[in-house]
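This protein record is not my work; I was only asked to verify it. The record follows directly below this note.
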Amino acid sequence: MIPPAIHDTTCPTVYTPAPQCTHLPHSVHTCLTVRQPGLHAPRGPRTTAGGGGRPRPAAIGIDFGTSKCCVAAVRDGRVDVLENELEQRTTPSFVAFNSQQRLVGSDALDQPVVNCANTVYAVKSFLERTYDEVKDCYFPCHIQPILKGHRIEYVAHYKNRDQRLRPEQVAAMLLGKMKDIAESSLGCPVDRAVISVPASFGNAQRLAVKYAAQVAGLEILELINETTAAQYFG
């Protein structure tokens, strides 16, 4: 369910997605002539800081998944799912903490084995959940959620001290990783995004995703349902 993400003002009028890019919602479009409901009008090319550089992407598209995340962009008129530092198009939705550093994505993939008590995964499922909703769940190799008011927090042992984290803060780390992947792949800053979310997400959960994106340095152009993404892009 990856939202494609760049308003590419150089693309042709008729656009065909690249074969590998499926489940891409229509909401962040290229320069399509016929506008679909919910589409934003193209804002034109943006240049890198200082002007005169290569056009900056108007936005990226992020599939914020339970087990893995993806980020997509339009380059040369084609939607491209961008590769991470391991040349993989998907990045595990893992965040782990140890005495020296924070590990996000592929760097944290082995942490459930060696550092399970300080590893978080499936954080999307915990956004704006109450403690009563999760207290009886079993979380193998996962930071145990604790009660904070009516909501939950994680306590991670990080840099030799216990750190309290909300699920949306962990989500921000994952979205920040997607931003880093996009900037590394595209070679320019990125600060706007469309993110796909489950259709079952309520207002509170959607606000939590928006907050996480803001912390990660991303302006949300739109949150689009994963089901809508699948409907339009297979």
